[in-house]
## 1
Amino acid sequence: MNFFTPPQPTNAMPPANSAQRPPILTGSSLVKTYGSSTALAGVDIAIAAGESVAIMGASGSGKTTLLHTLAGITPSDSGHVGFYSASGLVDVTAMNESERSRLRREAFGFVFQQGLLIPELTALENTALPLMLAGYPRREAEGRAQHWLVALGLGGMETRRIGELSGGQAQRVAIARAQVTGATVVFADEPTGALDSATSEDVMSALLGSTVGQGHALVVVTHDETVAARCSRVVRLRDGRVLSHTAVGTTFGSNAVTA
Amino acid sequence: MTATTLAPPPPASASRSGRAPIGRLTWLLSRPTAQTKAVLALPAIAFAVTTALLLIVLGGVMMFWRWTIADADLYQMLSVIALVLLIVPLIALGGAAARLSARRRDDRLATLRLIGATPGVVTRMTVLESTAVATLGALAGVVLYLIAMPIVGLLPFQGEPIGAGALWVGPGAILLVILAVAALAAVSAAIGLRQVTISPLGVRTRQSAPRLHWSRVVVSVVAILAAYVMLGSLGSSGDWMLTIIVLGTGLGIGVGILNLIGPWAIGMAARLALRRAKTASRLIAARSILESPKATWRQVSGVAMTSFIAVVAGTGVSFMDQFQGDYDAPTRMLMADIRTGILVTVLISFLMVACSVGVNQAAGILDRRDLYVSLDRLGMPRSVIEQSRSRAILGPLRFTTFGSALVGGVLVFPLTSLALIFAPVSLVVIVGCLVAGVLMVWGTIKATAPVMTRVLSEPERM
């Protein structure tokens, strides 16, 4: 459990936000460049438990890079990412590749645009996979996975392979997989990007219910205003900088722009 | 907006003639980019190896057919048997390369259909590209063949090295081989295209695991019995030629049976492994095999043949060794030559299998790069990904190798005796062959790890 201890102090002080709850994940002065293009030019962000944050912006504004940096997928060039785990503050920036991999596996959950589930495995096996990777016996892992699938309305579809599910159903399996380990932060990259509006609505409800509804945090990168509108806060990026933080009914930030 | 601005632009010259500029489109879409380089290079390498091995084997066979020594006809018959045995893994390798080329069609369809190309145009483009890649690969294979000739020429037959020149097949044969490889690519691409099953939603339809039809069991049992009786009757005959013909037929039957029951047996073993899987990598490996036992069989069947040959050949070698003292010098030389021939055949079939596994593995990684990148992002350890990948091949490989060895053992049982199978020399040859085969394939899987590293390290650029 090396990534939970010891807590390392960082400069990543969470900026004030309207959530009034202690942050669970913070990014401070995050900078990331790819060759000559700057993806992140000093981003500060704090995400609280039980909060859902939509990250929006035009293509190339740095929103996916921000998500990858916060999730420990891509290390930033400078700045700090801090994760407040049950046992204290963890400096994600200071972790090596395998520690970050373990953090993602055990503390975070992910939902991608296409689901990206393993096509050969059944819905149940896909959902149980993170638990099996964490060392749970297969029977127990599948038992817990079953629970989540039923909770997400996929009871009776456990033995179906991913190709035998609709896009919305596959996305729910991905949500179940993201939450089966009890991840306290779930990152979703365009989770409804490949779905029609009705299915998109359902999937978003499932995603919010299984994360925020459990007191966990949700970070969503999206182009879709209706998806963003369902989150408790919208962070808009432009050219790698935060343009605005918009809470439901409240606007704050250096260059406040209301949605 | 006026009516004139809405008028469509004048048609391009190619459209006026009613034909799409397939050649130019193919060229435009084939220009190597970061993504396509590997997809084009892999089949080209496979075609090059196929061509080089085909030319070497052909050179060897032609060399024997030029001989005028006393036992020339015997050498000629044996060389044809070796050629027949090598055709199965050779076609598998060529087919793997061709299928890899044809896979590009899916990506194309999306882009080209959007700009209005018909499926026919896309098909013709893919066939054209596969054939062009195969031809380039075959030309590289000719160079490889020329480089390999002096090395293979060191092999001793009739007591002395055969020399590089003996393996020269001549310009006519080289041209024929290039044409044959190109034709194989074109036909495989065309057939492969028809077999690609994509539903309107783009979801790959599930290929159900083949069930064992009772007729397969009956055919297999009858064939084994026939071969058993046929080989058993050999003891009474002293005719070399008859022995070789019957032995060749027996081998053919064995190979046929293996192909008949192989995919089914692999599916059964995988179902068992799935039930018993305790770790993520074992679970994924078992499911990957069950996805298409036929495809798995195609990858490992070359080693199945080799292990089958190894048992038969190993027994043959020790059979001959037993009577070393009873023979005169020319006969002993003949026996030594047969042994060399057996080892060369086994080595070449291993090379072919390793090469097709390598091509298939690399293609598999590139095909599923999005999935592998997402699993990496989820925090799945790289070791689990690698373990499931190698387990999905090595499991069936071990299973097939020993299964085939068993079939081979049953078939040669009447020819020799059980004791002979366990004769030391025979055992060394057999075990050596099986271990070498598994190690070579394991090494090939390991060799494709850098492809995965590249996919995972540069997900945006792939």
## 2
Amino acid sequence: MQISTLTLIVLAASAVAFYLGKRRALNLVAGQGGPRSLHSMPGFYGAWTALWAAVPALVVLVSWVFLEPLILRALLVSSLPQDIQSLDPDRLGLLLNDIRNLAQGNIVSGEITAVQQSAADHYRHFISLSRLSMVVVCLALSVLALAFGWSKVSPTLRARNRVESFVKVVLILCSSIAILTTVGIVLSVLFESLRFFDRVSVSEFLLGLTWSPQTAIRADQVGSSGAFGAVPLFTGTLLVSSIAMFVAVPIGLMSAIFLAEYSSPRVRATAKPLLELLAGIPTVVYGFFAALVVAPWLRGLGDSSGVDVASDSALAAGVVMGVMIIPFISSLSDDVINSVPQSLRDGSLALGATRSETVIKVVLPAALPGIVGSVLLAVSRAIGETMIVVMAAGLAANLTANPLQSVTTVTVQIVTLLTGDQEFDSAKTLAAFALGLVLFVGTLGLNIIALYVVRKYREQYD
Amino acid sequence: MKTDKLQQAGNSSVETESKKTKTTVPGPGSKRTVGNIKAADPVMSATDVNVYYGDKQAIRNISLEIGKNEVVAMIGPSGCGKSTFLRCFNRMNDTIEICRVEGDIRLDNEDIYGKDMDVVLLRARVGMVFQKPNPFPKSIYENVAYGPRIHGLTANRTELDEVVQTSLEKAGLWEEVKDRLDQPGTGLSGGQQQRLCIARAIAVSPDVILMDEPCSALDPIATARIEDLIDELRKNYAIAIVTHSMQQAARVSQRTAYFHMGELIEVGATEQVFTNPRTKLTEDYITGRFG
């Protein structure tokens, strides 16, 4: 029986259990005051029984699915001849794979030996046995637990509290999945980075001025020494991000001021969603725009005025990235400016301040922490942005502050290091994880500062 | 715009007003104000003022004068238009888009809704204190210095220091804050904040001070201090105060105007209005029969 079918059967049993539990609760109190004398609403008794019918069986089902391969493998290995058991783990793994494929009728590498054939038969036998017992155990458990839950139903059972605390546990589990995933990502990046730092020292990575991640695969290869000084990447990232912020902060902030303070409600109602639409454009589309329109245009402009502009200049990528970030700043700042109490504006206006004086001297200072927070969030977004720079900023790790030259960023290098077929034990590939770690730490720091600033601001008015 | 809420507030107050029309009925006879609207030495005078929020009329044909060295109290049930009327005197209603003001309001015989009137200069001459203390999130000093700075009233720092000190002294706050002028105004207590707002209004040396329920967010002790202050300020300024507390009106004002459903029902010397009201509506309100 398929696992999905089994799941459906358990859920159906759960639905039946809901009905049974609810009916039992109602029957118990029929003639003795009716539903009113129940501790909880009848539905909660139904839910209580339904949970008993479904949860234990499903938990067993899930753990079975996860543990089955491990147990089967152990059984399989112990059934193999002694000389095969003592093979080194890699070879053994390959052999087990072959046996598994053989058992499932897939393509097998090489000739099939008699040992393999008999092992495959064994394996097939184990699997069918395992599946059968899984079905029996789950269904039995479902029915037994249902009966147990059903028998527990009584007018004094605090079904609502039990069901609600179960739901609470589910909610906690869901939120911890998000957090645990983040932790998992951090740890995987961290451990790979540590492997990288075994080969390249931290100081060379963080302070070195040359970035040339090609390493020799064979000893006789030439021109592939490998240099992992990430400073050019950091400066490139900073250059592109600061160009982006140069574009985004003034435009975003001023459009926020216009929207919040000067526009009529009707203009605001149309303009704000339109501006936020910019945030919905996929970054790869911005990438086209940067690479195919802005960069050639800047280059042409440079040619006609005698300035040497690289065809994949930091300027093109930065400007387009800035346009992409405008809605972040304008939308967040607009919210912040709007949450400055009207009474402050009134107070200023009543003193004879003009609208612009009010905005500059009262509203903006009051909103400043929130604006700083939104800018910091935008910066971390700019630093982490990948697609635009991949398409428009180039790969040359130049250590330069000239926006007309080609630079490369941390994110671009991560992409190039990890695209294509890679061996995961060379310093070149592992460097991507170290870069990822630096990027993560940087943006995390910015986000923490931004959130702190924004929260501090909130305390003032709420 | 931030005025959305205000507009809604305006609308809803007008709505409750129109609902009340059905229940309490002022009667067509109350169209004319009873009592003398004239002040002895008028600074501001309003004549036949009508205010509309969109289609709804919030103020009907009100005329009233505010005189030098006197406190005019405006009382009446919620939604009767007294705050709206008060906000006509410094054109704060301009900030509400759907609000329209008709009629003639003069400051020293100058039409404040006229073409030549600069609303910025008008508001410098007609200060306002709001219901909820609204100090800017700046230091105490900067709060008071705000007005003089934007109007360029002082030539140098010494003069500004002087203006700040005098204003705080007049508002009765100097002794409490003189050692911490650089601390945020928002850190003061509610009553202190309101006195800071009064000092801020005084600092631009206005002719008139409008107060919109200045004590409604304060405790009785802070209220008493503000009331003393109002009495003190009367020596130098013309003051109009909107209040919900009839005791307060009786304590601080020389003249009292009773508003009802957007109309000015009765004006007179405070003592007379409270002891011997000439209209039934005023009497009902004062004796607590409604409102």
